[in-house]
Amino acid sequence: MSSSVPKNSAQACRCLQSLSENALMQEQLMELDCLLPLKALLTSSTPVWTESALTLLSTLSAHPPNNDILMSEGLLNEVGQLLHHPRSSSGIITHCCKIITDLCSSNTGAQAVMGSLCLPGLLSVLLLPALSDETLLHVTSCLHHLTTWDALRAKLSATVTPEQMLCLVKLSGQMRSSQLSFNSAAIISQLEMTDEILHLLRPHYTDMSKYLLIFLQKKDIRFQQLGIVTIFNLRKDGDFSSLLTNSELEVQLWKVHAQTEETRQLLQMIQPLSPTSVNP
């Protein structure tokens, strides 16, 4: 990997990536200080060489014992800068998302993400033209994962732009990929409903009502719950409450309520089994 010929370094990355599925091999790689040549490849102007380094790094980051070392070497800073690069390929973006998700799961990961360009980088990627649904799925999954931390959720709420919000609303309403729709709508539902966020959402209430109605009509409980939570959050705004009143969305909301109440009553008819009867 330390070859002065980038093509040779990239080929070495691919070989090591095949070997690094083994945990013992990963430990040896980290002991050999493999990060220095890998970080050098990340700055390559050739995307395929950068991607080969990221492929190996994403394999390493998937192994939790490596994460503290990877963060101490400033890997998140490198990843954040790559996401801002206009020539980043789908493969580069996908591996960046995997690395961010893995590193953020560690004890100090969320704070490290806060100090990097990862969050604004992920948001900026949403606006890239001609991204595939598969790549967008990785981006929205990563963003949704980051919103589980209060500090990152607050930062996302403070930095999202009107263009990025419009993109999230459009992705929530597309029905060709249900998981992409769910991820995007979940990100919106996690935002802090400040005056600024409500101001960004207000022009999209009609479109949001359409996808929320579809969510409530789905049999998948995840979508129903996400729809209910989003409606609850948006009802804080009088404009949305007015739109909801006597609408098809409100009718469907009461249908879901009635179904839930019926289920609750049926469950009450069942005498709960004691632990001893289940596990004699």
Order of helices and strands: HHHHHHHHHHHHHHHHHHH
Mean pLDDT: 90
Total E-strand runs: 0
- What structural category arises from helix and sheet content? mainly alpha
What is the CA-CA span between the terminal residues?
A: 59 Å
* Form type: elongated
Task: Identify low-pLDDT runs.
Answer: none
How many helices?
Answer: 19
The amount of helix comes to over 70%
Rg, alpha carbons: 23 Å
Profile the largest sheet: none
| Percent strand | under 5%
InterPro entries: ARM-like (IPR011989), ARM-type_fold (IPR016024)
Can you offer a commentary on this structure?
This protein has helices spanning 6-19, 23-31, 35-42, 47-61, 67-72, 75-83, 90-104, 109-114, 118-125, 133-146, 150-159, 162-173, 178-190, 195-201, 205-217, 221-234, 238-244, 248-268, 275-278. It is mainly alpha-helical and 280 residues long. It has a domain at 160-268. Helix 6 runs parallel beside helix 9 and helix 12 (162-173) packs parallel to helix 15. The mean pLDDT is 90.
